[in-house]
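User: Here's a structure from my thesis project, written as structure tokens. My advisor, Dr. K., wants to see whether a designed sequence matches the one we expressed. Can you design one independently, without my sequence as a hint?
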């Protein structure tokens, strides 16, 4: 009696299951995929928590230093730093220990005759320190505002640094788990002659390559859930858009990064060389794709290149969904970029893949 014919996808199922079991049995891999992003979110969330701007650090020198220091101290918005001499104050300004150096002239009957400000306008916060200090001194000398102004303070979830950070952490996690969990593993298998053995088994070679991508997709939901849930519980990060839309964009990013990982590993024989190539591929995206800070800081000439990177496409789409409540249709430019990276790299990798 003839043996029942097994379905063609049977090797793909077995290979994918093997990848899943290999992953869950490795505590180190579990930590880097699930634990490390949480620790990074804790560290950066605390470091950049909403606590209001720091008071500018100001030093006062000159004949009227004591009078001006007293006026600034009474204002309460400025931190007056004690400096023994003008030379020490100049060094403190140069090294960034103070934001502003005030040179107060000789005293008149009602205060200093002249005030001079020294600061570096290229350093963040120094111009604001100059304006705030001058306002405090002028008010203490009797200046009154011509126009009455009212203030309304707003602090809503969605515009904080942690709201900006969480989508970036998801993108970094997806990219890292695909590049290292897929590319490095394939190169290591080639180095140990395992690919040569797989090649002579009754399986389609595309099944072997697809099994890595499918195993990444299985853990994708868990990766997103852990980071999003932690952000919500610890920092109140809300997903204003659809969770399904976020999952769909993450799915496409996994496709793109898996294709890149397979392309990097398609001919590499040494794990050291593979590590170098993967760092070479990921480094531009770590720096330029806006995972930790806005990439609009870079010159306009490189903006098209930055927006064409797959991690940038995911970060832009994920932040639009999480923080702005955008629909999946509104992120179609980023979706096209992810599909292009995934399709081209995966097809090219299959064509040039070396089994031994």
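Assistant: Designed independently from the structure alone:
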């Amino acid at each position: 009696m003839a043996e029942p014919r097994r379905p063609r996808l049977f090797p793909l199922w077995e290979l994918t299951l093997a990848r899943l079991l290999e992953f869950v049995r490795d505590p180190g891999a579990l930590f880097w995929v699930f634990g490390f992003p949480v620790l990074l979110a804790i560290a950066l969330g605390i470091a950049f928590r909403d606590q209001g701007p720091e008071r500018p650090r100001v030093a006062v020198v000159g004949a009227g230093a004591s009078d001006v220091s007293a006026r600034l101290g009474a204002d309460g918005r400025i931190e007056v730093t004690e400096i023994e001499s003008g030379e020490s104050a100049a060094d403190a300004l140069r090294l960034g220990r103070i934001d502003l150096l005030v040179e107060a002239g000789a005293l008149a009957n009602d205060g200093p005759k002249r005030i001079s400000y020294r600061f570096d306008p290229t350093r963040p916060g120094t111009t604001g320190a100059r304006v705030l200090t001058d306002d405090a001194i002028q008010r203490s000398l009797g200046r009154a505002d011509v126009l009455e102004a009212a203030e309304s303070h707003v602090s809503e979830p969605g515009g904080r640094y942690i709201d900006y950070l969480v989508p970036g952490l998801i993108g970094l996690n997806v990219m890292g788990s695909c590049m290292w969990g897929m590319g490095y593993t394939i190169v290591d298998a080639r180095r140990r002659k395992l690919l040569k053995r797989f090649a002579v088994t009754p399986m389609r070679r595309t099944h072997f390559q697809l099994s890595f991508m499918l195993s990444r997709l299985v853990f994708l939901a868990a990766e997103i859930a852990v980071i999003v849930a932690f952000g919500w519980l610890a920092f109140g990060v809300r997903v204003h858009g659809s969770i399904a839309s976020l999952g769909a964009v993450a799915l496409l990013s996994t496709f793109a990064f898996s294709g890149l990982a397979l392309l990097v590993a398609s001919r590499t024989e040494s794990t050291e060389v593979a590590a170098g190539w993967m760092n070479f591929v990921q480094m531009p995206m770590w720096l330029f794709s806006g995972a930790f800070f806005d990439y609009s800081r870079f010159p306009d000439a490189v903006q098209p290149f930055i927006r064409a990177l797959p991690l940038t496409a995911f970060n832009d789409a994920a932040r639009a969904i999480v923080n702005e409540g955008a629909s999946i249709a509104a992120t179609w430019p980023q979706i096209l970029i992810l599909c292009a990276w995934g399709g081209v790299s995966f097809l090219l990798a299959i064509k040039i893949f070396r089994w031994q």
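When you compare it with your expressed construct, this may help: Residues 10-48+160-352 form one domain.
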